[in-house]
Amino acid sequence: MKKTWLAAVFFIAGLSSSAYATQYEFTTIEVPGALWTSANGINNLGHIVGTYSDGTGSHGFLYDGTGYLTIDYPGSGGNTGIKDINDSGKMVGEYNNGHKYQNFILDGRDFSTYSFPGNTETSINGLNDAGVAAGGYYDWPTNSSNGVLYEKSAKVVFPNTTIFMDVNDSGQMVGYDPDFWISYLYDGKDLSQIIFGDSPYGVDIWARSINDSGYVVGSYMEGGFLFDSANGRVSTINYPGAAYSGLSGINDLGYLVGSYTFNERGYGFLAIPIKKTAVPEPSPFVLLGLAMAAVCSYGFLVRQGMGADLIGLLPGGD
Length: 318
What we know:
The protein is built from three helices and 24 strands.
């Protein structure tokens, strides 16, 4: 009888948690004439930025829902990419000057470049609505990742930590260590590692963006992920039918952007949440009824001579 009640309690526990599911409407983002397109960031107005490649090189783009605007750093020769955009239209991106990548902030028509001196590789990856940009630099002589906040002319450095990928309006940041592909969340005070999935070490997780509600998106071995930093809930989100896809941006409405591959070509996509359903918790009376039904069913099987075979399948069965 003890084993029977263990089975009943286990059955109740399996039903007592609510299940949530968000459905998305997916739209492909493809610059006309492009060989491949990557969607990297989205603001609360639904404006999407990214990078595309054609026969002349790589270019940044802005998509406002009606058309595409190409963005090239002056004199870059077709080696430009746009990474993120805030609600005022300010963008962050990069270009290649023929020797290495340089990073910039684009405010209207004004480009401002940023780089750390020495043998370093600088990156500016995301920004919030106050215009604070998150990034970092990799110091090759010391093989160290250093997080950076670009706030007007000031540079706030978090040495030997992580390359920051994005910052929200509350000052929360996400980043990753490019040496080990380990991602981190900074809550304004503490830096903590993001861990989920099959790996107990949290490796191969690339956190890319965080919104004001603390939702983080990025990529890992299973594809794109949505991570709720408040409770640790993780959802895998992939473009339907794609060989592989990942997420790179999220706005405060929960709109997602990312990229996928199909037939060896790359495309960007927009995913808009269209429905969220919750399976309500059964009442205690329903749970009790289900538990008693399980007990009675087990008793019936015992009387039919099947109980011995069933015991081995139950939690705690010998």
